[in-house]
Write a structure and sequence with these properties.
This protein is α/β, with parallel strands linked by helices and 279 residues long. 32% of the residues lie in helices and 24% in strands.
Length: 279
């Protein structure tokens, strides 16, 4: 076992040491900013910004709308680290690479993670532009990211997933949202797929029967990495479009980007409000 786990732990250590040589800021909370949702960074008093390319072991995202930088700074008095952009399984990376930076910020000592994404609405009462608190997820990515030797330094072999998205963090977000003008806050189940195709209408009907409210191509690996490390997560999906077959229109990445742009200010206010409450 240690034969396999040593290089992975070494890689993490090298990345953490490299970051530590650039900043001594001790982040309390990590934030992962999804497609088109990177403007939260504008409200961070940035101390250090490190391009992913300068972090040993990290991979750059190849997707439009994803910048690749790790941002260290303060917002509302809270020391934070933000991942502006992430890498996805559909880009061809291994799950260990998809989880890598989440694990790095976990090792940097964050106590909580706020993870965001763009998602398609499966629940027909949702509208594009709604924001959804993730109460739980269904992993249909076709792989469990922790498959393989367990890294005992990070967590146990069989991590509990029953409170990956704790209710107390969702309650904080609900209280914040009550004071954000024009926000429509939903709460539901996120179903994660590998992509990169959007789903078929038949798949969406099937996922609705399974209990999913929204569908996307990210987040699940990072949240599993956090559960492994014992770090609680607040997940926020921006419902950028209705999932396939619900409306008589095709799905495009442009629609996803247009909707994130439209709700950028409410989304940013929600995330910043939450960070302020976690300070
Ligand atoms: N499906 C999968 N991922 C997505 C979608 C969708 O409809 N919208 C944004 N990300």
């Amino acid at each position: 076992m240690s034969l396999y786990s040593a290089p992975m732990i070494e890689e993490l250590k090298t990345a953490v040491d490299s970051i530590r040589s650039k900043t001594s800021l001790q982040p309390q909370v990590g934030v992962i900013l999804g497609s088109g949702l990177g403007h939260v960074v504008d409200a961070i008093d940035v101390e250090t910004a490190i391009p992913y390319g300068e972090i040993p072991g990290a991979r750059a995202s190849t997707v439009l709308g994803h910048q690749g930088r790790l941002i260290f700074g303060h917002t509302k008095g809270l020391p934070v680290v933000a991942m502006q952009g992430r890498v996805h399984y559909y880009e061809g990376y291994e799950m260990s690479q998809v989880m890598f930076l989440s694990r790095v910020i976990g090792r940097l000592g964050i106590k909580k993670l706020v993870v965001t994404n763009a998602a398609g609405g499966i629940n027909t009462s949702y509208k594009p532009g709604d924001l959804m608190l993730i109460s739980d997820h269904i992993n249909l990515m076709g792989a469990n990211p922790l498959r393989g030797p367990n890294f005992d330094d990070l967590g146990v072999r069989f991590p509990d997933m029953s409170e990956a998205y704790p209710e107390d963090l969702r309650n904080v977000a609900k209280e914040v949202a009550a004071n954000v003008q024009g926000i429509k806050l939903q709460e539901g189940i996120y179903l994660g797929l590998s992509g990169p195709t959007y789903e078929t209408p038949a798949e969406i009907r099937a996922f609705r029967i399974l209990g999913a409210d929204a569908v996307g191509m990210s987040t699940v690996p990072e949240v599993i990495a956090m559960s492994h490390m014992g770090i609680p997560v607040l997940g926020i999906s921006c419902i950028t479009n209705m999932a396939a077959g619900i409306l008589k229109q095709k799905l495009t990445h442009q629609e996803v980007m247009d909707t994130t742009e439209r709700v950028q200010s409410q989304f940013t206010e929600l995330v910043l409000g939450v960070l302020g409450r976690l300070a």
